Amino acid sequence: MKVFPVILTVTLLINLTTYSQTAEDSVKAAVNNLFTAMKNSDSVLLKSCFNKNSVLQTIIQSKDNVVSVKNESVKDFIRSVSSQFKGSLDERITFDVIKIDGPLASVWTPYNFYYRDKFVHCGVNSFQLVKVNNQWKIQYLVDTRRKDGCEN
Description:
Blueprint: H1 3-39, H2 43-48, E1 50-61, E2 67-72, H3 74-82, E3 89-93, E4 97-101, E5 104-115, E6 118-132, E7 135-144
Parallel strand pairs: 1-7
Antiparallel strand pairs: 1-2, 3-5, 4-5, 5-6, 6-7
């Protein structure tokens, strides 16, 4: 009779572990779709990565250390990416931190960016994703860009 509570506890722990791995994997897949779409110049896949009213921004630091934030529309981003030759854009990311709370996920991904196999810059992407209709969508993406301190 004392075995039942142990089995129940183990079963619940396994289910919770599986759930969290699945949630994290689905968030990673949503982020990876963005970079697959970029690499393949795939406007349809790229558009599917974003939620409506998504925000794209880049933090820029000038040579004299003035910081500014540049906004870009998702529509312009998709147009720009889809105009490239397939394989021209290659952003290589690593997943550093992923936090999930229900329908909200926050993802931090350091990256190196290559254009036509030539290193261009590195930085960090910070994603905010929202789970809409059971799919993770990018709601907010802000990145940094630099040429110093990169591991390429």
